Amino acid sequence: MNAVDVVISEVGPRDGLQNTKSFMPTAAKKAWISAEAAAGVREIEVCSFVPAKLIPQFIDAEEVLAHANAILGLTAVVLVPNLKGCERALAAGARRVTVPISVSEAHSKSNVRKTTAQAIDDFARMIDLAKSQAGAQRAQLVGACSTAFGCSLQGAVAEDDVVRVAVALRDAGADAISLADTVGYANPEQVKRLFRKVRKAIGEDFNIEAHFHNTRGLGLANALAAYEAGVRNFDSTLGGLGGCPWAPGASGNVVTEDLVFMFESMGVRTGIDIGKLIEVRRTAFAALPDAELYGHIAKAGLPKGYQALSRAV
Ligand code: ZN
């Protein structure tokens, strides 16, 4: 496999589908994941281990994860909201698990009915659970600081609070930390400042990831700002699938194909074949007719004479 400069993690099958109205059939989810992996995407967040009565979209989480785990060269990621979800995910063979912890107390209480401190304690229990698994097989846990750039309930979120939560998650044993702009409030200056602060606090070499939504149109600008602050791991969704439950009609995550185009045209290798990726966008959502898609490059086409750095083999 060729070297890459940044890892782009497709989170559409989780973050995107979590916010779409209709159920995507299991076979269509599997085909989507396989096709993106074949286009060179190395990491895909494939489902969420939440009770099916809360989010019916993920009723097939076990089956989708098993499919993704069998794809050579792909890191399948799952999201879990709590310890029970983590137990289910690990039993299903999850190797990389995203655990959102709201920095905003108001968001934490409304989302998981816990204070931020209680959610961090829960995260430590999940780490213990993962550690109880056999050595090299141990699942990696990503502590995701959600609402890190602002919260639709609380408003502003103090940067010192984000740093404190990130350090607590590292100390609890996180394998990586993610800063998430859950509601699309971030701006590039804030992104640069906060990632620098957090990297300084948790260690410049510690794995740190960025999760941006394009709710207010600043997704790509924020991704670039994070890149300039040293971040090399980015979440995005194909076609910007997602929307925002707090802002009806607003666009979803950063658009994967636009993000790949930005990096590759800057000379930053993603390992992703953008032509194939655009093709996946055309086919993946046939089973989801009411999906709203966003993004520029799939509509405008690549510039004349464009030289891709990465091609799928
Ligand atoms: Zn998100």
Describe the structure.
This protein has 313 residues and is of the alpha/beta class. The chain has one domain (7-300): TIM Barrel (Alpha-Beta Barrel). Helices cover 40% and strands 13% of the residues. The protein has an eight-stranded parallel β-barrel, surrounded by eight helices. The longest helix is centred in the middle third of the chain and has 16 residues, at 116-131. The mean pLDDT is 95. Bound molecules: zinc ion. Zinc ion (ZN) binds at residues 15, 180, 182, 211, 213, 253.
**SS element count, helices:** 12
Run of helices and strands: EHHEHEHEHHEHEHEHEHHH
CATH topology: TIM Barrel
What level of helicity do the residues show? 40-55%
CATH superfamily: Aldolase class I
In what range is the share of β-strand residues? 5-15%
Give the uncertain stretches in residue-range form: none
Structure classification: alpha/beta
The hetero compounds bound to this protein are: zinc ion
CATH first level: Alpha Beta
Shape: globular
Count of extended strands = 8
- Arithmetic mean pLDDT: 95
Report on the biggest sheet. Answer: 8 strands, parallel, barrel
Radius of gyration (CA) equals 18 Å
- Count of discrete structural domains: 1
- Describe the strand arrangement of the main beta sheet, using strand numbers: 1-2-3-4-5-6-7-8
Annotated CATH architecture: Alpha-Beta Barrel
